[in-house]
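Something for you to look into today, if you have time. Just paste the record in under my message, thanks.
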Amino acid sequence: MRGAGDGMAVRRGPLTFSIILAVIMQGIDNTIANVALPHIQGSLSAGQDQIAWVLTSYIVAAAITMPLSGWLASRFGIKYVLLASIGGFTVASALCGSATSLTGLVIYRALQGVCGAGLVPLAQSVLFQINPPERHGQATAVFSTGAMMGPIMGPTLGGWLTDEYSWRWVFYINLPVGLIATLGILLFLRETHHGRREPFDFLGFLAFGFAVGALQLLLDRGELKDWFSATEIWIEAGISAVGFYVLIVHTATAGERSFLNRELLHNGTFVAGTLMMFFIGAILTGTLALMPTMMQGLMNYPVFTTGIAMTPRGFGTMIAMFVVARLINRVDPRLLILVGLFLTLVSLWQMMGFSLQMGIGPIIVSGLMQGFGLGCTFVPLNMIALSTLPRHIMTHGTALRSLMRNLGGSIGIAILEAQLTEKTQTVHSRLVENLRPDNPLAQSPHLAMPYSLTSPSGVAALNAEVTRQAAMVAYIDDFMLMTAIVLACLPLLLLVRVPRRRPAPAE
């Protein structure tokens, strides 16, 4: 074993570079497409509710496939699964860039999610394998830096590429990065066979996949189909209900190898922390989906400016992680989580005061504060929830938490986009009720050109402005809903228990 480690040390540098490059590529892709959504929407003639599938298809596919990554690595070897993940992610990126329809783009994004689901956990596992235990702290720091760089760089890079070239380059940029990472891992990573192939609960996996997939379809298409007045929605609700029923019954009756480990469900702290992570995923991903369309569609910000305005969120998260790392052993982690949730509430309260006349300053301030607040919750939540788990189910716990965060993001986007569409239509209909020629306010000099009720062009311009105002009200209602979600997290904090600290040697 020592000999293998010494041989690996010779290739540790280029191998680490290749792995971090792949992690950055995957991290960038989580945020780079957000600022390009309005351009993609216009290019592919998609509606506001339809364009959300570009994000949710990726998240749902990754969430469903993620539990397979560990089993595939033990079955076929971590090197080959990692190569397949990076290579498949790169090919899917090329297909996304060449998509000519919304349906094609959604399918290719789902393929990206399938291939990228195991990339991050497998990359972290390789870093731990090629470094001795005394270097695991440094390996974790390097990995975390790479994982944070991607989301921070994504909005700015996506805005610049879309502004200077085309939204398609948001995906094409992955091709050279993926090629370099694939070659590096192919040349410098030696496969290690563990000789143990664990069984996988395919029944539980299929039940979960059908349940979540049908639920996502229901949420995404419900507004378009007028919810349960359509047969399709009833079918999707039925499939989802049957899937969850089979999953629950199978989990309760299966052995230790069930898809959802029952031992995890008996840990109250883990369950409460995982539910909180689900809600936080909805806030984090939902905000990233709403803000670019609001800034570009309602406030006419250029795409590059939108990317710049979204970047402080990533910096806030990064700063928070550094601060929390210094305080985590000195302060009760629950206090850090409470502070993080409070800052998130303050940022959402500020966002509820957004208006069409404001400048870019409030967007940057609220983004920085919200990023810092959410960053204050990630590390303490992970530490509390996972530190109470026995070592033999730690991997299951980590996978389930990542899965729940992704599900929170996908379901959050679907609900927020559905409410946005419905509220925009409702508020628009209420506002136009008062736009009548017999209304004295309609004859106000403020309704000068281009707004007028006496010419077709004036009516069209007035309708566009009413739609813009209605959409702004709908965005504020979405921010109010996210505030309610954060408030729902607070009682869960009472169920969290902090394990006793044992004296540890200085690092």
In short: The chain has 20 helices and no strands. The CA atoms of residues 64 and 209 lie 6 Å apart. The radius of gyration is 24 Å.
